[in-house]
Amino acid sequence: MLIFIFLCLGGFLAAFVDSIAGGGGLISMPVLMIAGLPAHLALGTNKFGGAAGCLSSAYRYIKSGKTNNEILKKLVPFTIIGSIIGVKCVLSISEQVLNILVFVMILAVAIYTYTSKSLGCENTFEKITNKNLKLGIIMAFLLGFYDGFFGPGTGTFLTFALIKIYGFDFLHASANTKILNLASNFTALILFILNGQIDYKIAVFYAVAMILGGYFGAKVAIKKGSTLIKPIFLIMAFGVAIKLVYQSII
């Protein structure tokens, strides 16, 4: 019984944080590993719960009107295609090399965000242009691909990219990130289901906790806006970087 309480609390917290600024996997994966699940089963079970939590927060953001459906309907298909190819290519790139590359990129994003005080504080989006649409499609495909075969920091990269490409503030970037994340999550989830890598006894409890966490996290983010999201975004970005260094050392 205690283990299920631990899983529910961990799942709720992970989804709550993830719905605000991404990086919830830093919490949700260790919780499952502590509960005794082997790595591949933990990945699949985490994706099951994560997809449910993502759906919950995405619904809350859509309902609030913070998403840009015109952009999303153009980018989501490329995120799905990228995720499918990413899952298929998962074994072709060394995880050690990938850790180093992602560490450098995410640390650069965190430092740039910290030093640029005005970044993501004001929503300056005007319209879709050929330039920002092409950049958005490339970004959606690459990060869908990345999420399909690796994952850590996907939400962080997506949020940062949407701010830089479209001029969103953190709130609107986080809202649109959730929809793109939802697309890549469900794509990967289907593949985990087909490969039998989900512990459904745990996944169902985890999913319920993450649905609640995602819903309330998005609600808090919408209420507090970019002033809350930016510091949590920075904490999670540095957290992902530290996790990657730790993984490389052990």
From TrEMBL:
Main location: membrane
Pfam family, one: TauE
InterPro entries in UniProt: TM_pro_TauE-like, TSUP
Keyword Membrane among UniProt keywords: yes
Transmembrane residue ranges: 39-59, 71-91, 97-114, 135-167, 179-196, 203-222, 228-246
Localization per Swiss-Prot or TrEMBL: Cell membrane
Entry GO CC: plasma membrane
Topology in the lipid bilayer: Multi-pass membrane protein
This protein's UniProt keywords: Cell membrane, Membrane, Transmembrane, Transmembrane helix, Transport
Superkingdom assignment: Bacteria
Similarity comment: family membership: Belongs to the 4-toluene sulfonate uptake permease (TSUP) (TC 2.A.102) family.
Protein name, entry field: Probable membrane transporter protein
Taxonomic path: Bacteria, Bacillati, Bacillota, Clostridia, Peptostreptococcales
